[in-house]
Specification:
single chain; 609 residues; Rossmann fold; 3 domains; 6-stranded antiparallel β-sheet; binds fructose -6-phosphate
Length: 609
Amino acid sequence: MCGIVGYVGDREAVEFLLEGLSKLEYRGYDSAGIAVYDGSVVRVEKSVGRLASLKEKIEDDMPKGCLGIGHTRWATHGRPSDRNAHPHTDCTGEFVVVHNGIIENYLALKEELIEQGHAFKSETDTEVVAHLLEAVYHGDFEAAVREVLRRIEGSYSLVFMSKKHPDRLICTKKDNPLVIGLGDGENFIASDIPAIIQRTRRTFILNDGEIAVVRKDSVDIMDRQGDPVTKKVFEVNWNAEAAEKGGYEHFMLKEIHEQPKAVRDTMSQRISKDGKEIVLEELKWTPEFLNSFNKIYIVACGTAYHAGLVGKFYIEKLARVMVEVDLASEFRYRNPIVDENTLLIVVSQSGETSDTLAALKESRRLGAKTLALTNVVGSSIAREADQVLYTWAGPEIAVASTKAYTTQLILFFMLALYMAEIKGTQTPERVRELIDLLKKIPAQISETLSDVEPIKTFARKYGFNEDVFYIGRSLDYDVALEGSLKLKEISYIHAEAYAAGELKHGTLALIVEGVPVIALATQKSVYEKTLSNIKEVKARDAVVIGIAAEGDEELQKYVDHVIKVPETDELLIPLLTVVPLQLLAYFAAITRGCDVDKPRNLAKSVTVE
Ligand code: F6R
């Protein structure tokens, strides 16, 4: 999981390389490096730490030249260090490579290359690619790259540069993303679109196995055999500002505030004009086919998995079909019972998460039909699945996922309601009622966001506690899981979510005086039971912050503070209750001085196992 960039044109390459890498730091940021060809030598500069360290290192003596590649790293093989940072070179320094992914057979290749006399400088898997290129090069750069690809195994996006061929860069990909930005007399390569939209909106999105030879005036794409491939230009219609912070201090806060729009965009076009039905025109399956499965799995990681838990609740409750939810990293290794009667729904903001992609591929191999819920058009998961429903959340840059989660919930809700319509498990009146309530959600999220001061105050007051517990039942428990993940990942506070009824089976032992407990109590069917659990923690002198719906006058009698969210159906309320939990995590992280958008040890897109 890394970000890579490349430039060929008439301008100083370093300008785009640094700009592009700054937009890709969400993919990893433990070291960075660039290589620029100045007409006589390839100058490689690397630095451990954030891109800022590299910039500082070279600011008084910027590499000159119009051909270059760059990399921001999230370490897999070899700890973060200058030596292990990319780009990597062969023995002569004439072949240079940047890589995102893992070369699985690198040890065998390394041994072979060492026997041939190659000297390695780093502990990385990537360096073998540079040496292998040197070893198989006989004057034809493209042919040598094809030979390298024949020999390496694993996942990669790669950009190759050679002093011997200073008019071009060659790039390729397998299971990791790569886009080419088409300029005027210059071309750009990057792992992701935000890196290039300042320069161009015209792109080629490479598919697995395609190789692109990128010169300043041309891009030639071929397959592994060297046969030409014709590709359509993909026009990016994101607003350039959408990838920037738009006035907020952090991407995360901006993205939390973008939720009303993201949710509205995701639901628009999917409700019939008369407001009576859900229409999912993108689904090319017939309604009968969609309802013919006897088993549904939802598989995802992290926040997307938490959205899947809510998705299960929606589908079971509304469409009365049994659903299993699994973590992608578990699912694929437990020999799941999957066949042609199984529907596998994968959820992924990035569409690139390695475990989710692998679960998807495995299920397809076993005959399942697959549906992806993802935010990134053209992502690996979108391309691999039989059908795709997009969350129209726009680019999510902060590592902590927020608007992706709420839009995933919207999609699950609409899918469940659509299935319910077809099966007749809900009356038309109930469907209509739920659609009416759904349409109000964007405004209700805005209302929830309109006064963040009380949440800021709680964050300041409790932000230095070492442990925080989240409790809830039913859908409140699912949201509690997401709230606790948000807190731990960006504020580094130890946070745990428990099904409130489980407390007395062990966890209650951890509740002592002054421990903050965030108690969600919005689910009417289990309200009284949740109240008893709240009383249990209060009796142990916990400090309880309750989350309730407007109109609830009861909860405040038993807790220390209450945060209220607008009233809606209890199925839809997770879209509102999660918002104060996101804000609480955000302000706690600020209180503790944490780097909100780039929490330690994490990266936005997990493209390795
Ligand atoms: C947490 C977070 C991660 C992701 C997970 C899956 O805030 O962002 O837990 O949800 O890595 O990522 P996607 O959805 O891109 O597959």
